[in-house]
């Protein structure tokens, strides 16, 4: 697995900085983009293949993505199609200069921009910033009962009062809130590197004590026996 985190000596990014997913099987290109985009003020999560990218996308919402077209296994065009089915994340495709037909196909599938290899990192950064400027400022909010969870800020409030959450509680709630009403498989939660198998139940019980009138008979954070968990939401605001 090639998911990355802040490296020593690099500036720590603000939580509200644009979060970019980079998918490329070339380790040299991934490392280059990670370092450069962080210096440009982005948060970066990077992986080497579409399979891992799909797992990550199951639990996180990104502001933009950079996908290489040619990768072993599932290619970038298939991953692009999957992403556009589930949301409107701006996607920049990386292509070899000779791959004209693939660039055309990518645009037909919903790619927002493309950049041929080799490329200048500064140009890629500028293209990403242009994509983000063109994107509406969507602050998705999930409401349930008196609670309001802002996915962009990762803040939970109850009747306007901030509810304090631990980092693991916040992460668990975010994973559920990205798919309100849908069952999130237990294996997806366990796969999150900050939430281990045994920790899931502990964190869920703690979160229920903060959200439920009767944690033993939860209304919002429900267990789907044998499958996983779901967040029952009253309303999802996309604006």
UniProtKB/TrEMBL annotation:
BP-aspect Gene Ontology terms: regulation of DNA-templated transcription
InterPro entries reported in the protein's UniProt record: CheY-like_superfamily (IPR011006), OmpR/PhoB-type_DNA-bd (IPR001867), Sig_transdc_resp-reg_C-effctor (IPR016032), Sig_transdc_resp-reg_receiver (IPR001789), WalR-like (IPR039420), WH-like_DNA-bd_sf (IPR036388)
CC terms in the record's Gene Ontology section: cytosol; protein-DNA complex
Gene3D superfamilies: 3.40.50.2300, 6.10.250.690, Winged helix-like DNA-binding domain superfamily/Winged helix DNA-binding domain
Domain OmpR/PhoB-type: 139-233
Keywords associated with the record: DNA-binding, Phosphoprotein, Transcription, Transcription regulation, Two-component regulatory system
Positions of modified residues (4-aspartylphosphate): 68
Segments forming domain Response regulatory: 19-132
Any Pfam family: Response_reg
Regions recorded as binding DNA: 139-233
Molecular function terms from GO: phosphorelay response regulator activity; transcription cis-regulatory region binding
Protein name (record): DNA-binding response regulator
Organism, as annotated: Acuticoccus sediminis
Lineage of the organism: Bacteria, Pseudomonadati, Pseudomonadota, Alphaproteobacteria, Hyphomicrobiales
């Amino acid at each position: 697995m090639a998911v990355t985190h802040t490296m020593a000596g690099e500036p720590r990014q603000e939580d509200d900085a644009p979060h970019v997913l980079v998918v490329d099987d070339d380790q040299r290109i991934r490392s280059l983009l990670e370092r450069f985009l962080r210096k440009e003020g982005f948060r970066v999560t990077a992986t080497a293949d579409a399979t891992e990218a799909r797992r990550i996308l199951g639990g996180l919402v990104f502001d933009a993505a950079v996908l290489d077209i040619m990768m072993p296994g599932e290619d970038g065009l298939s991953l692009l199609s999957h992403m556009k089915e589930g949301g409107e994340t701006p996607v920049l495709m990386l292509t070899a200069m000779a791959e004209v037909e693939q660039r055309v196909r990518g645009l037909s599938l919903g790619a927002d921009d493309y950049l041929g290899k080799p490329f200048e990192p500064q140009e890629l950064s500028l293209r990403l910033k242009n994509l983000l400027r063109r994107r509406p400022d969507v602050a998705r909010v999930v409401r349930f009962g008196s609670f309001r969870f802002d996915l962009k800020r990762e803040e939970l409030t109850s009747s306007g009062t901030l509810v304090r959450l631990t980092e693991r509680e916040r992460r668990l709630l975010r994973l559920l809130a990205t798919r309100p009403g849908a069952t999130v498989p237990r294996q997806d939660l366990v796969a999150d590197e900050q939430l281990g198998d045994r920790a899931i139940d502990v964190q869920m019980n703690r979160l229920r004590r903060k959200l439920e009138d009767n944690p033993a008979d939860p209304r919002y954070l429900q267990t789907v026996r044998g499958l996983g968990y779901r967040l029952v939401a009253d309303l999802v605001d996309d604006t």
